[in-house]
Amino acid sequence: MVSSAADAAHRGAVLSKGGVDVDTQDRFADLSGATVAVTGGFGLIGSRIVHRLRALGAKPLAVGRLDAYGSSVYSSVFGLSPQDGDVIAGDITDAALMDDVVSRSDYVIHAAALADVAECTRNPAAALRANVDGTQTVLDSAARHSGTVRRLVFVSSASVYGVGTGTADVGARFAEDDGLAPESVYANTKLWGEHQTGLVLGGSDSSYAIVRYFSVYGEPQVVKENSHSWVVAWFAMRAALGLPLHLNGGGVQVRDFVHVDDIAEATLLAAVTGGAERATLNVGTGRATSIRQVAELVGRHFPGARIVETPRPQGDPLGACADITRMRRVLDWVPQVGIEDGVDRYVAWLERSPEAIPQWLRAQAGAA
């Protein structure tokens, strides 16, 4: 994972692994001209997948609700507008809508979810509606159109593994065959989604793959109020406003930070790679980075940034990193953006796009 390859995911650049050069652009040939439904297409990950598909000559259908952020965020930050011909504003629990979208699709990327762990805990009914009812609706549509849908990729989460150990040693890695111990409403819904994908699509001619994302970050990620997720964005935006960087529990927790460009690339590779058929794949870097290290990386860009230790929230995972052995073997690919470069890129984007900082966070800075 080197800085010089920071934009590889957008360019379809040649990657070098084990002495073998792999041009990901060539591997996406099946996507050229194909119609790809992307649920959750208005979020950070979904929008990046949609932009990547456009660049590959595919025909994305971005489906989702426009209520997670302010209306200006979708067009000015994520680069998607309801006026775009490939954008469909709607709820994935709408069976008629999803049946229409899936019936026109060659591939389905199911990334829609209420993905805020804190919000899922506060409002489990909303989590069940989005992550369970919505997933069932998408799966039912995929099963009905199994003759035309080449593959569905279900987006899951490393949270299904549990809390982790908070250490960076070799033994503190989550592998796909490890025991699963979800400890949040969000994690429970994702594990249910994995099992349900296999139950609904496994007994037919349908093709599916499951990807477990580790800690996704990167421009243009925008923080949400009353959430403690998305630490790179949190720290960078707070530092830009002169607010202190809070290290919950001293920042000893570790995460495997995966840049959104790499997330998009891995997800599309899972859609088109033969070996990913009915496989469950971690999507991570294999590197554990502490929250304190992230604060220090952000602090390099903001001299005088204050770091304050605060209590660790109940249920905040200690964390671990991904075992990426299977991902490397099946996808013949590794992530290209390291955390140092990723933080640099995020801060540079924030400096170019200060309007991305939400008003409610600016208000906190004004009151401080």
Write the layout of secondary structure elements.
Blueprint: H1 8-11, E1 14-17, E2 20-23, H2 24-27, E3 35-39, H3 44-55, E4 59-64, H4 71-76, E5 87-89, H5 95-103, E6 107-110, H6 117-122, H7 124-144, E7 151-157, E8 173-174, H8 185-201, E9 208-213, E10 215-217, H9 231-240, E11 245-248, E12 254-255, E13 257-259, H10 260-272, E14 280-283, E15 289-290, H11 291-299, E16 307-310, E17 321-322, H12 325-331, H13 339-352, H14 359-367
Parallel strand pairs: 3-4, 3-6, 4-5, 6-7, 7-9, 8-17, 9-14, 10-13, 11-16
Antiparallel strand pairs: 1-2, 12-15
Helix pairs in contact: 3-10, 5-7, 7-8, 9-11, 9-13
Arrangement of strands in the largest sheet:
5-4-3-6-7-9-14
What is the first-to-last residue Cα distance? Answer: 39 Å
CATH superfamily of the domain at 14-219 and 259-286 and 317-337: NAD(P)-binding Rossmann-like Domain
Low-confidence stretches: 1-22
How would you state the average pLDDT, rounded?
89
Largest beta-sheet details:
7 strands, parallel
Radius of gyration over C-alpha positions, nearest whole angstrom: 19 Å
Q: Hey, roughly how much beta strand do the residues contain?
A: 15-25%
Helical residue percent?
Answer: 25-40%
CATH class value of the domain at 14-219 and 259-286 and 317-337 = Alpha Beta
According to CATH, what is the topology of the domain at 14-219 and 259-286 and 317-337?
Rossmann fold
Number of strands: 17
Going by helix content, strand content and strand pairing, the class is alpha/beta
> Which of globular, elongated, flat, extended, rod-shaped describes the shape?
globular
